Amino acid sequence: MDRSRLGLVLHPTRDVSAVVDTIVTWAARHHIDLAVRAEDRHRVPATVEPLPVGEVAVRSDALIAIGGDGTMLGALRSAVHDPKPVLGVHVGKLGFLVEVEPPELPRALDRLVAHDFTVENHSCLACDVCGDDLVAFNDIALIRQPGSGFVSASLAVDGQQYGYYRCDALVVSTPTGSTAYSYAAGGPLVSPATEAVVVTPSAPMAGISRAVVLSPDETIRLELREDSGPVAVEVDGLVIRDAATEGVVQIRYRHDAGLVVRLDPRRYQERNQLKLSLLDLPLLPDQLRELLPEGLRERFNRRELPPPR
């Protein structure tokens, strides 16, 4: 019988060695194989098999994303053509997708291989950007280059022209991404249980000035207008086009494109409610801690609650 294999997806810059060592020790004890992309072989022990970047998800039974939301999104994108369960381990600041703190990891791994978890299905945006097919689990954004004009783009939905935007940035998000760039631009918070696409302009100057919520069955087309300044195109925060002055972004909603492991959905939701409340407080982290009761401050120190950003 083939042994189970878990694929490791590492934060690109943070030191994740302590978490990796925990996983390697656990895997040896449970006779589980581990894999990582070949570019990260120098960051893991020799017992972890290096694989070409496109094969880690394909040849693994599940993925472990070690980092923050960006790492989690990268893991989901890597498995979009053959979705695998992704367990997020929190090594970062404020994350909305990751659930497991490092001290909880051994027990979480036991439950992962025992299939003792629930799966949270995530949609994505399938984007045709100037001829390239890409996917975004949070958002796709058109962003102005400072000092070089503004984003000027027309919006069409299912072939029908809706209007145009003239703004600093234009963000198209999934419900999961509604807590990210779209929220910062003034867009609504959308429940993850809702199927919708949100189009939000940041600092609008003319045209459509409010967020628009669209059906997942509608196709969105954004076309740069002649008066647009140079525009960068980001997918989940990654720049995939820079200084574009013409072109079309066509976006479709894709159901159940990603599988996120949830071990304690209720506690996860409670943590996220706390994180969202912290986003709207104009205080520094140390000031926030001083406002907490002594018992909660101790829990922060033990990393039982997410630290404020």
From TrEMBL:
Record function comment: Involved in the regulation of the intracellular balance of NAD and NADP, and is a key enzyme in the biosynthesis of NADP. Catalyzes specifically the phosphorylation on 2'-hydroxyl of the adenosine moiety of NAD to yield NADP.
InterPro entries: ATP-NAD_kinase_N, ATP-NAD_kinase_PpnK-typ_C, NAD/diacylglycerol_kinase_sf, NADK
Sequence similarity: Belongs to the NAD kinase family.
Annotated residues for binding of NAD(+): D69, G70, N138, D139, R166, D168, A203
Entry annotated with the keyword Cytoplasm: yes
Subcellular location, record wording: Cytoplasm
Record GO terms (molecular function): kinase activity
SUPFAM superfamilies (alphabetical): NAD kinase/diacylglycerol kinase-like
Protein name: NAD kinase
Keywords: ATP-binding, Cytoplasm, Kinase, NAD, NADP, Nucleotide-binding, Transferase
Chain coiled-coil ranges: none
Cofactors demanded by this protein: a divalent metal cation
Top-level class of the enzyme under EC nomenclature: transferase
EC number(s) per entry: 2.7.1.23
Location of the active site: D69
Reactions catalysed: NAD(+) + ATP = ADP + NADP(+) + H(+)
